[in-house]
Design goal:
The structure holds two protein chains of two kinds. By secondary structure, chain A is α+β, with helices and mostly antiparallel strands. Chain A has helices at residues 3-7, 49-58, 103-112, 120-127, 139-148, 216-226, and strands at 15-18, 21-23, 35-37, 40-43, 176-177, 237-238. In chain A, the strands form three sheets. Chain A has a two-stranded antiparallel ribbon with strand order 1-4. Chain A has a two-stranded antiparallel sheet with strand order 2-3. Classes of the chains: A alpha+beta, B alpha/beta.
Chain lengths: 243, 344
């Protein structure tokens, strides 16, 4: 490991307390009520490249040439130079979120840290908190602004977007994040819904049964999560842990 | 009403029923025979960007057609002064034109490019099956999905993205056309062009400078800033007008992606000799303006008599003068005073 890599390691990572709250499910059905989410802790920011490097050094099975292909597709850590080398060409992203990591890898990382991935309800509850260090008209508009921009050539470092009222950084506007139960709601690829369960979720033009039909950002997150599989490694998809 | 009149009415009624049921049988039999027609060989589909159309199909048998379509999110000009973050099928708006033959087996792969932000799928109106393919193609960035369908019904069909929020995906330009040529083939014409209308909603007004973002409120209110042919103000005018010559017959494969507006499709200074109504089998002749529903199509043909510039417009006319709904056919050749001339 180069000096720069070692130097960039973040020693202790803050977790912030998220108090008990209610998460209103995105899709309204006859049976689902606002979901009580018990208090939990969440990483202040997404897991970075240097943090993930520590993990693969300690756990050789998660190095890119060694990883079991059932648990990570061929894009796993594809921008890293080698197994335990993020690389000089990546020197600007040591402290950027690690991306191109599978759900299995994210889950293994959190477990190694004695943590776990947040559930969709936890993530959404934590992510809905208002920004406290930037001025915006609406969070939805802010998020949509991110979706509309093409990916940047170099992914910015963590803590470069905004901090929300819980103290969490970059919940929106930097990357997508894995959740523990990302695939528990949408089972059908057609987001307008053809099955009994899902016709409530989407109709052709959008949204008769969606909790807030103007929450386009929420729509996009649910469609995105619905398209994932556990072994996928995607260029704008990272994670943070909860406890 | 006397007894005879009643009898005649009853006869007419019964005959009507008979005819209706005959027609239904005809359609059912046709679909059934398409479903069982033997597939010979395979080929990779030629896909084209508007205004180009893939070559007419000359095969007299069904084959397996391989279609690979890429989803690309891309900032492009929506007008000379305005950029917009489009979501596309193949890198342009409208998406690639796909051409197959009735009875073909289409082996379809949808690829979402790795640097896409969001997931996408495809609903082809030419598909008989769940979501028109959307149910099996929700594709994350960097991934792909594959399915196959039999092109049973001939006609010109719209395809579009149907990932939630569906309206936003369509408003960002995610639509195109697939032509299923009838087994009997199509008549030869001299020129074929692909033109597709769409409405766009931006934070700034028409032609406001810089990168303009999608405006959700305007989209919901159905108040577009732009109504465009082929995804850009002046995409097909002036130097980019569709060329043709006097005496030629021009066929337009015209679609409407919407997401909201219905088009009053019209060509100033020409009459559609033929219109394949709503892109189907029925042909109407001598039509001035034809409706193209959002998520629908039309095939129009016109023989050109007089040189000059023909303006293709949405005759809901403020859209043409204020929102960009204009394309052009540039006709060269000799005047024909017998058909048109100014009297001095």
């Amino acid at each position: 490991m180069s000096f720069a890599q070692r130097n960039a390691v973040i020693v202790a990572k803050k977790m912030h307390h998220i108090p008990m709250g209610y998460y209103k499910p995105f899709f309204v059905t006859k049976n689902n009520k606002p979901l009580k989410v018990t208090a939990f802790k969440m990483d202040e920011f997404a897991v970075t490249n240097v943090e993930f490097l520590e993990f693969v050094i300690a756990n050789p099975a998660w190095r890119k040439t060694k990883v079991n292909k059932l648990f990570a597709d061929t894009n796993y850590l594809r921008y890293w130079e080698h197994d335990i080398v993020i690389g000089k060409k990546n020197k600007n992203i040591y402290n950027s979120p690690v991306v191109d990591v599978s759900w299995f890898a994210a889950q293994a990382y959190c477990k190694w840290k004695n943590k776990r991935l947040p559930t969709v309800a936890e993530w959404e509850l934590a992510g809905n908190a208002k920004p406290k260090n930037i001025k915006i008209n609406s969070l939805t508009e802010y998020i949509l602004g991110w979706y509309k921009k093409p990916n940047l050539f170099v992914l910015p470092n963590v803590k470069t977007t905004y901090q929300n009222e819980f103290g969490l950084y970059d919940m929106h506007g930097l990357i997508w994040e894995w959740t523990f139960n990302f695939n528990s709601f949408i089972s059908n690829g057609d987001s307008r819904g053809n099955t009994q369960d899902e016709q409530k979720a989407f109709c052709a033009a959008g949204s008769i049964n969606v909790a807030d039909r103007t929450d386009y950002a929420g729509f996009l997150r649910f469609s995105y999560r619905g398209s994932l599989k556990g072994n996928y490694c995607i260029a704008n998809l990272g994670f943070r842990c909860a406890k | 009403m006397n007894t005879n009149q009643s009898k005649i009415l009853v006869m007419v009624f019964i005959t009507g029923l008979f005819l209706v049921s005959c027609n239904n049988n005809a359609v059912t039999e046709k679909s059934a025979s398409n479903a069982t027609e033997e597939i010979k060989g395979e080929e990779v589909a030629v896909l084209t960007d508007a205004p180009n159309v893939p070559p007419q199909i000359t095969r007299d048998y069904a084959t397996k057609v391989i279609v690979n379509l890429e989803v690309i999110e891309k900032v492009m000009k929506i007008s000379d002064s305005t950029d917009y973050a489009f979501w596309t099928f193949g890198g342009k708006v409208p998406g690639k034109f796909i051409r197959v033959r009735e009875g073909d087996l289409v082996d379809f792969t949808l690829i979402n490019m790795p640097d896409s932000k969001v997931s996408h799928n495809i609903d082809l109106h030419a598909v008989n099956g769940p979501g028109g393919g959307a149910a099996v193609t929700n594709v994350a960035p960097g991934q792909s999905a594959r399915f196959q369908f039999k092109a049973i019904n001939p006609g010109l069909y719209v395809y579009h993205c149907a990932t939630g929020p569906v309206g936003m995906h369509i408003a960002n330009g995610m639509y195109g056309l697939i032509m299923v040529e009838p087994k009997s083939g199509m008549t030869k014409v001299d020129k074929e062009y692909y033109v597709m209308q769409g409405d766009f909603y931006t934070k700034g007004k028409f032609e406001a400078k810089g990168l303009q973002e999608f405006d959700q409120d305007k989209a919901v209110a159905e108040h577009p800033d732009y109504v465009l042919f082929n995804g850009r103000v002046r995409s097909s005018t002036g130097a980019n007008a569709f060329p043709a010559t006097v005496g030629e017959t021009v066929r337009l494969y015209a679609g409407n992606g919407g997401p909201n507006l219905v088009s009053s499709f019209h060509v100033i200074g020409e009459i559609f000799d033929k219109v394949y109504v709503e892109g189907g089998d029925q042909v109407n002749t001598n039509v001035q303006t034809t409706l193209i529903p959002s998520g629908g199509s039309s095939i129009v043909e016109m023989k050109l008599q007089i040189p000059g510039v023909l303006n293709i417009v949405d005759h809901s006319i403020f859209r043409t003068f204020h929102k960009g709904a204009l394309a052009q056919i540039k006709v060269t050749g000799n005047e024909d005073p017998a058909i048109f001339s100014k009297i001095k």
